[in-house]
Design brief:
alpha/beta; six-stranded mixed beta sheet; Nucleotidyltransferase, domain 5
């Protein structure tokens, strides 16, 4: 497997970035504005299976004309990586093969789902509506964290 990039490796790219919160059932997506100031959720995909998901996310990336992709890397609180992190690395590698020439970087996503859940609790978003937005919101948080790192 090739070495995977970090957000710092995207410093010299220009243009929109796609943020991805990979999940086995739903994969949340967000895209930045052209100036890379703000992340906006654009929904989720759920084509089924890691290969189909990578192909679908690559299609979305091309539709939005992104110059880079950031995939969340779930780590344990102690910084170690478990099965989910391995699965996300596998997804990022597949996505890289679908997006020739577009860099795909990984970013630590610890606490993003908790942040998304806290926000949805504060806005009293429940039930089916919550299910349909949590992955998108997580992708938006992942991407905004990456954009903030690129600014500093």
């Amino acid at each position: 497997m090739t070495e995977q990039l970090t957000v710092a490796d995207l410093k010299h790219t220009k243009g929109r970035i796609l943020g991805v919160d990979f999940g086995d059932t739903r994969t949340g997506l967000a895209v930045s504005d052209i100036s890379r100031f703000l992340a906006s959720g654009i929904g989720y995909v759920s084509p089924g299976g890691i290969e189909k998901t990578a192909a679908k996310v690559a299609e979305v990336a091309r539709e939005h004309g992104v110059s880079a992709v950031v995939v969340g890397l779930p780590r344990n609180m102690d910084g170690s990586e478990g099965f989910r992190a391995e699965r996300c690395r596998e997804f990022a590698a597949l996505l890289t093969s679908h997006l020739e020439g577009v860099p795909v970087a990984m970013i630590d996503e610890r606490m993003t789902t908790m942040s998304a859940s806290r926000y949805l609790n504060e806005t009293n978003t429940r039930g089916q509506k919550r299910k349909s937005v949590i992955d998108t919101l997580s992708a938006q948080i992942i991407l905004q964290n990456a954009l903030d790192r690129l600014k500093n």
